[in-house]
Model the fold of this input.
Amino acid sequence: SMEAIRLFRNTAKQVHDYPDLFYDSHLATAGESSFHLDQEKVWLKGWLPVLVELASVMSRCMLDVRTRGLTVMFEIIKTYGGKLLPNWWNDLFALIFRIFDPSKLPEMVEKCEWMTTTCNHALYALIDVFTQYFNLLASSQFQQVLDQLVWCVQQENEQLAVSGTNCLENLVIYNGALFSAHFWDTTIEYIWKIYNFTQPTELVSLLEDALSVGDEKVGLVKEKSTKESSDVETEEIPTPIANAQFFNPENSPDKDSLSTDTDSNQSLNLDDINDFTLIEEDHNLINDATTVPVVQSVVTTVSLSSGDIGDLPVIRIEKRVDTIADTKQQKIHRFIVVQLELIRAIDHILFYPTTTKYENDFILNLYLNRTNANVPPKLDPRGMFSKLSTPQLLSLNECLTKSHQSSNQILALERGLSENENKNRYFTFQRSLLIETETSSIATGFRILFHLLFSSETQTMQPYIEKTLSSLAESALKTFLLLHDSSTIEPWTSVILLYLYYLTHVSQITLFKRLLSAVYPLLIKVLRHVPLYTSHNLFYNLSLLFEKIGIEYAI
Done:
């Protein structure tokens, strides 16, 4: 296979160097129409067979061969793509998109492995090709490429989903300067598609269910003891089911005495069941991970046995139920990770990747480098902020705000849970990601709104922008005042520092006073809040703001 790939690479060079070998000699002097026919023969008999057979080798071989085949195929496209006619690119992209088609998977390759390796590699190479020939391909392939990126996000593969978001970021950063207004509208539409798809609504439902249950255990099974001397107590089954410890008949020394047929054994008395949900076995539900609530115990058969088992209730639950819980948990985690990547992508697209980090470090170090306190915020010309219209920027800000509110809601619900197994099992491991989503989204929103106010081109929409900014600032300060956990105070301090820095550098006096009036009482409370956490940087930035207040109000 490796030798075949090498020969295909050499063949592509020969097709490029000697296209006349594919011409029909008897049509050589027949005029312009024959020339077009000869050009098509170069594609049909030269380029297309090379690319199709390369794809065929990839579809039948192991990982190292697939990787080498992909590398050579895209190397051929990048090297000789300038010689391809526009209509040939349609066939070529149809061939590339087949790589992502699950129905074309080789029998010996698992879907997960294919997506993690081959699809992931092909996705980045596809963006490189599209960027290299953007002017040639934009009009015909732009939406198809975005469709492919969204498809990757929607797959049950975290790495491929994250790569889809990263490739969207790369596509826009590399080519955004050439986008028309229509292209920007389309891009924002697809950003909203990714956001809507990755909303962790199931996690909200799980938290609300856990709060409604309170400290009670879901799936508690009790049986009245028939022997007063028995020291065996029925075991409580905690929720969620992934944490449950169940008696396994297969491990019993007398497993032959156990039966899964409730008709031939002692019937389960429903009066003896407290807070327990019995769900009838349904293979369709088992195969659909989205239809079975995780907070319930899914039981196929419940029966009681006698003899050596004593009074212990025997509960048979098939392993595939645990798989359902894990699948749902993985889905929630994937959605949270991808949405965080989307937030980062929006920030990087608008303000350029390194600029945001530099500005954050600059603000954090103001306390140490006080001579920089008068340096105003600036836009990096490499970012795409100036390329978008005000409505487009406000649409992205709305997406960020919704993401912030969603994460804030989940964390508020999570804080309402008691310290129990539910919280430890399902929510704590997502907490750091949600905090980063919550703070990153609102920080990028602050940057967008302040830079819109600093711009002279947004006069007509300034009242709406002011109102949106004041509402966002009020929400941020109220959240900050409620924090008591160091793991959340530190990232939120960075957000408040960013807001104070931008607010302090509002040069229009009337605008400054309007923005200040909406949050002044909260700033006083923050001032009282600061010494509790010895945040010298935050205290210093607050002092800069109050110095400006004194100057502007002649205090």
Notes: Residues 421-454 form the longest helix (34 residues). The chain has a mean pLDDT of 77.
